[in-house]
Recover the amino acids of this structure.
């Protein structure tokens, strides 16, 4: 992931993640076939945003990956 992943600026990452979270909330996007994991995804994404914000002063780039 370090070598092959796509790294973006921390500020850009925060903007993208915030827009993604806003869209997921506004459209009530469903996650999961058997049960809706919407709340869990929203919680995790909000935690990621806080993590990036907390490290924005020391990290210049960010790599977001989804593990399923």
């Amino acid at each position: 992931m370090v070598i092959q992943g796509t790294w973006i600026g921390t500020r850009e990452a925060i903007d993208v993640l915030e827009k993604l979270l806003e869209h997921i909330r506004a459209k009530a996007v469903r996650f999961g076939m058997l049960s809706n994991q919407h709340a869990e995804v929203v919680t995790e994404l909000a935690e990621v945003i806080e993590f990036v914000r907390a490290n924005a002063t020391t990290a210049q780039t960010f790599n977001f990956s989804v593990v399923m």
Q: What stands out?
A: The first strand starts at residue 8 and ends at 9.
